[in-house]
Structure formats: C-alpha cells, structure tokens
Amino acid sequence: MPADDALARFSVDLHQELLSDAAAQSDGALTPDVYTQRMIEYLTEAGELDDGEVCYHRSRGVEVSGYSVDDEDEVLSLFVSIFTESTPPVTVPTADVDTAFKRLETFMVRCGTGYHREVEPASPAHDMALRVGEAVRRDYAVRLFVFTDGLIARSATTARRKDGPIAAYEVWDIERLHRLLTSGQGRETIRVNFEEINGGPLPCLLAKDGAADYTAYMLIVPATVLNEIYSQYGPRLLELNVRSFLQVRGKVNKGIRETILNEPEHFLAYNNGISATASEVEIVDMPGGGRGIRSATDFQIVNGGQTTASIHSAVKRDKADISRISVQAKLTVVGADRVGQFVPLVSRYANSQNKVNEADFSANDPYHVRLEELSRTIWAPAVEGSARQTKWFYERARGQYQDAIAREATPARQLEFKRTHPPGQKFTKTDLAKFVNSWDQAPEIVSRGSEKNFREFAIRLAKRGQTEPDERHFQRLVAKAILFRSTSDIVSKLGFPGYRANVVTYTVAYISHATGQRVDLDAIWKRQAIPARLEEAIRTIAPVIYQEITTPTGGGNVTEWCKRAASWDRIRNNVIQLPNLDGILLGGPHDPTGVEPKSQPQDDPVVAEMMIVPAEIWLRLSGWAKQTDNLEPWQRAIAYSVGRQLQRGRVMSSKQAAQLRIVLTEAERLGFVAQAAVIDDSAG
Fold first, then answer.
1. Domains of the chain, with CATH numbers?
2. Mind listing the pLDDT tens digit for each residue in 99-157?
3. What is the DSSP string of 608-663?
4. H or E element: which one contains 284?
5. pTM
6. How far is it, in rounded angstroms, from Cα 437 to Cα 482?
C-alpha cells in the first residue's frame, strides 16, 4: 500500500476509534478533549509523557488542553490540540502552530505568577493552574506539545527557540503518530548525535568477538554530554532500564551527588559508569588516530540510570560544575529486529548485582504473554439480540491491534477482523491495571496515572507469585473491564463538571468494597453487560463520590487529593444506601448499606431543613428535570439518589443537604413547584 494511502487509512481508523471513545461521553460528541485523551494515552505508553490530565481552558491570550507534572524527574508538560476532524488529513498552517505555542507559553508564565486566582475555584482548570504554577516556581523543565490530527510542515517542529525555561517544543501531527504506532516498537527512536553535542565524535574501543551476535564498544563520556542527552529526552532514555530515578533519597543517589559536588575529579574512579544499547552506530576515524562514535540510533541507558539522572539533577538543582566529570560506558549494539528481546536481558543482567523486583521486567512477563494468547482464542458470548460472537483483544504491546488489521489482505477482511475484534473490546496493559486495581479497591493508586498505576499492578502481581492465567481468569478480567467501562459510560452521562476518571475508579472501588467483591463476574461475562440494578447502584454512588472528592480534607488540589490513601479511607467509610442487589451477588443476601451504619448529623440546620422535604419530592424533582431537560445530569442524579435513600429510612449527609438546597432553589426558579407535587400525591 502506498505511503499516502496508508496514512489516509490510518487517519480514518483513528477517527473511528475517537468516535467510539466519544460514544461514552454524555452527548456522544466528537470533541477535541476526546482526541487529547487519546494522544495522552499514546504518548504515555510510548514514554513521551508521565501520563497527563485532559483539562481544556481558554481565555484571553491563553489556551491549553491538558497537562502533566512529573515530580520525580521535575518535568512539566503542557499540551494543546488543533483538532481538524478531517479525513484524509489536511495541512495545518505553521502560523496556527506558532499561535498555539505562544498561548501555551503565556499560560505557563501567568500560572507562575498566580493565574489560578483568576480561575473559578471549583473548576478543574483551577487545579491545573495551581499545579502548573507550583511546577514553574520550582523551576521544572517545561515541555510544550501541540497535538493535531492534521499534517504540519516539518519546519514547524524545528523553528522554535530553545532559550528560556522551555526545554522542548514538540509537534505531534498525524504523520508522526502514524510512524510511532506502526514502527513495531511502540516508541520513537532516539538518535543521539554525539558529534553535535560534544563538538566531535566520542573516542571508543571495539571489543571484538567473532562468534557474538552483537558488537560492544568501550568509551568515556563527558558528563556534559550525558546531561544534555537527558535534558532532551528525559526518562525515555531509561525506558528499558529496570529502575527509575528516585530523586536523591537513596544512599546511592546521595553518594553520587556528594561526589559530583565535592570531588568531581574522582567521579570516574568512584562510579561504576553506565551500560547502554543501540541498534546502530556511526563509526568514523578520529583526527589523531583511532576510531570514534559519531551517532547512535535507538539509544537506551539500561544500567546507570541513577548516575545519569543524578548528574542532571545536580546541574539543575545545585548548579553544579560538571565540566571535569567523565563517565565510563559500555555500548552494546544489536540489530533493530532483536532490540525488543535482547535489550531487556542486557538490562536484567547489568543490574543483577542490585536487588531488583521481578515486576520491573513486566514488558515480556509470561503473565501478559499468556493473556495475549487467551485473548486471541476465547470467544465472548453473543450479546442479547445478536447471534455474532466476538473476541476481546489484549494489546500487550502498543500497536498490535493496528498491525493485526494491516496484515489482513483486503478491506473486506479488515472489516471482518474489526467485527470479530471490535475497537471497543481492545484493552492494553495500562487499561488492565486500571480495571484490576479499581476492583481491588486501590482507586488512589489508579488516580496517580496509567504508568504509575501499572507499575504498582506489576509489583502486586509479582508479590502474588507467578500464576499462569487460564480461561476463567481471562473471562473475569473482561468482566471487570465491562464493569469499569460501563461505570465510565454512566458517569459520563451524569455530566459532572470534571474529575471523571477519578469518579469512575472510586465508584468501582466502592462497589467492590460495599459488596465484599461479591458481584457475580461470571454473570457479567455471560451477558457481556452489567445488570440494570448494578447500573442503578452506580448512578446512586457516583454523585456521592463526586461530592466527596471535590471537598478535600483541609482544602487544596482535588487531583492531588484523589491520589492520597486518606481520600479512599474517607470514602470507603461513607454510608451510601444502595439498591437491593440480591440475585446479582454471590453468596447470601445483600446489606444495602454496604458498611455498618454510622450515626448521622442531627444538629446540622441545613440537614434539618432538607429532611422536611419528603422523599417523593426529590424523586419527582429528578423526573421533572429529566423530562424538561433542566438542571445538570449529576444534580438530577443526586435528587433521585437521596429520594431513594430517604425512602429506606436513611438520613442525608451534610454535604448532600447543602447540594440539595442549591438544586431545589434552582428547580423552583425554573418552575418546579414542590408543594404542588405533594398535593398531586395526596390526590392520586
């Protein structure tokens, strides 16, 4: 297939997947936010981002679609989307890219001087401005991203200035994304030009072994070169490394820092150096004799990540002079077709002298390999009203789904593949970790982002011991996926102003906690859907969750609060009256409260005022608002939830009462007559 045709086909497929994502939103509209979320997922998986939050905000001179703050590596990433919604892709003017970058820069600068005070305090944009401002004042490296589903001239990616606080300007258009997802390795190749960075090639010695299936070089790398490479590529350099840099908390990192600051001339003697890999190197003759490495393609540091990151941190934090520091290095070169298998082994054995969790080597873990095999062979039951069976496609490595489609010879066969493996039934390793950790009642970990959540999932998996998943294990994982995604659909339709991802994971965790994990997962697998009463439970729980997470203890940033164990502790001890779930739970009858009853506040005047309103009023208000399309969906939901709660003899909480007072006031302003509802009831 010609390159242009392949790109056009990729563009169509991408937009179809975005439409599938949009279907889960409250109005099903294909919006730039849907595209931004997908781009964050792609780039997080590729190691370009340390996850991220979608949060669109525009005001005079500023525009931003989302952000990512990596506190470990001290990197702030801001992104804005130029979404054309056009297939085949159209060209985006360079001037539009320049304008987008300028608006991001303005937003960054204003956040550093207290822009959050100009933003509505209850909005997610306030949290974003506050978080960005903190990162700017801490002098984090700043990376600006422009995402677009169109095409951009290559000059637009290189014309930006490199001075000031901006470490990098990144343009991700449809063509660059296509290269990333069809490269077979799920990440962009890093090509390091040592001649450009160092002012000349790096002298090297070749370690010869005629029988080896690789080539190895020994060299001395100036610390200034390592610092420059890390400044440009950050943790992407270490993505195949088995350890992440933990700032300077550990003894090793503190020792490296002390040597850099106090004895730089002894660094080469004290430090073990680094081990790196590449798929290709360019070797040249040195002017004074010998050989040197001009460039390395697919460059990765597989041992010595702490050394590299500590040097970068010392320059950034301590303004250290590293001009006298050199680092010994071993560079192993292996063919691009063997990188995925060979490099993890180099990484494993290079680090074998240190205690390393097996969970850190999860990319090719047998557990994930077996799940992939199961997903290719197990047929899911046909959904009600259809005779067609489908499969759930587990994408162990990024791009497998698109690769599988591309391998089908004709458009008709590609269409049949998608019917058998619907895009909505594809899930990745990070998706799997969200499903499982939410069910395992760790929503605070899920809220920390896909990559951090996956690392925790891998650690938990390793602690449980290596168990080979079987057919039933796979089916129950899919049931958890259905529960999670159904919850996401319902929460989207409730229309909360923000924090959707947090509400979803906390809601699933609360269901798991309140039912003692007795939801019949086998029944969900057989139906390929959750029961109606479980949907009702989700609609009851989600508004309470939203209220709870948006009122952090002691105030502060909602997003950060959701990442703390204290947030889950507070929510799981909350009493939420659930509908009767008998028949869809395993074991005995269901206690609708889920937890032991707690005493409710009786001295709150707002609670007393709202408790006077009969349950029927709240239920009628909810129905009236839905029929007339008044109020926000989540406001209708809380009126309904509390109405059902009162029917069961429960007392509303102070937070519910405060919110309901607002709901009732607004409903009456719009024409709802509470007293008339009572009269109608008595007449009926």
1. 3-181 (3.40.91), 191-356 (no CATH), 368-572 (no CATH), 605-683 (no CATH)
2. 999 999 999 999 999 999 999 887 889 999 999 999 999 988 899 999 999 999 865 55
3. HHHHTS-HHHHHHHHHHHHHHT-S-HHHHHHHHHHHHHHHTT----HHHHHHHHHH
4. strand 280-285
5. 0.69
6. 14
